[in-house]
Write a structure and sequence with these properties.
By secondary structure, the protein is mainly beta. It is built from no helices and 28 strands. It has one domain: 7 Propeller (Methylamine Dehydrogenase, Chain H), CATH 2.130.10.10. The chain is globular, with a radius of gyration of 18 Å.
């Protein structure tokens, strides 16, 4: 049986979870570096207009932010962060391509796949050399990407070696949140129009319901062992925990009027960090027990979040 808990307000620090969070703050167009153990802000740097998503390289030294823009001003840049020095490394201008959003590193820490929603394309950007779809997920081998196509009610498989579209699969309407299992066997996708999370079997093409009753299934994240799926429900003010194989809901934490959005899980699978958009903070969750450990302050309207473990962890 799933356990429904209202998350209490906890101390603005989590001493036994050392490491650094980097959070994108949409309204002020900044990114904040936060020490999790003390809750102290280490640095705040400017980004492009309306930053949304952020991804961290495998070596933990570089983070890339998609500057999506605001309503009347579509963004066209990526902000690249030098993580150890907590500063901007460079800004990449995407030229004619507008509304960058979903991001995923490819193996090797040099290429990033990025959707450019207004231009209906997926770009491969060489970060080190640089001075329609909304979200993207990449398989662990870096050969295949999947996009959630809000406008066409499909997910699209892309061969990253050839740059060709392989197939389009119909899914419930307004697919946005998306993630792919590390072995590429399943694609999980959230439907904003139906409040449903579906699973696509990539071998058979079959689509089945994994969970429903969401108001806005904002993001999808697998634990490192790919056994548990964490699902922030932005306007439903909850984070759900679902067993990947049985698709049984294991538990749920509620955050009334707080708007859970971006999510990341630590490499050891113990800790989840979820941005609370309406509260200008990030909640820290113990994954095995599904309890709140504490929270750390961020900037206004935080969204994307990554975690850099402390050295030696």
């Amino acid at each position: 049986m799933a356990v429904l808990l209202a998350a209490p307000v906890a101390a603005a620090q989590v001493p036994d979870r050392p490491g650094t969070l980097i959070v994108t703050n949409k309204a002020p167009s900044t990114a904040t570096f936060i020490d999790v153990a003390s809750g102290r802000t280490l640095a705040t740097v400017p980004t492009g207009n309306g930053p949304h998503e952020i991804v961290l390289s495998k070596d933990g030294r570089t983070a890339v932010i998609s500057d999506y823009g605001t309503g009347p001003q579509p963004g066209r840049t990526l902000t690249v962060l030098d993580v150890p020095n907590r500063q901007i490394a460079r800004t990449i201008d995407l030229g004619e391509y507008r509304r960058p959003h979903g991001l995923a590193w490819l193996p090797g820490d040099s290429l990033v796949a990025v959707t450019v929603e207004a231009s209906r394309a997926v770009l491969l950007v060489h970060v080190a050399r640089q001075n329609g779809s909304h979200m993207v997920a990449v398989t662990a081998d870096g050969q295949t990407a999947w996009t959630g196509d809000i406008g066409s009610n499909t997910v699209t498989e892309l061969d990253l070696l050839t740059g060709q579209s392989v197939r389009h699969v119909e899914v419930p309407v307004q697919p946005e949140a998306i993630n792919v299992a590390p072995d590429g066997s399943e694609v999980w996708v959230g439907s904003n129009g139906t409040g449903r999370v579906s699973v696509l079997d990539t071998y058979t093409g079959a689509v089945a319901t994994a969970a429903e009753g969401f108001r806005w299934p904002y993001r999808i994240w697998f634990t490192p062992d790919a056994e548990t799926v964490l699902l922030p429900d932005y306007t439903g003010d909850a984070v759900r925990f679902v067993a990947r194989r049985s698709r049984r809901e294991l538990g749920r934490l509620t955050f009334p009027q707080e708007g859970p959005q971006g999510i990341v899980v630590s490499p050891d699978g113990r800790t989840a960090f979820v941005s609370l958009s309406r509260e200008a903070r990030v909640v820290v969750i113990d994954v095995p027990s599904r309890t709140v450990l504490g929270h750390v302050a961020a900037g206004q309207t935080p969204d994307g979040v990554v975690f850099v473990p402390a050295a030696g962890r």
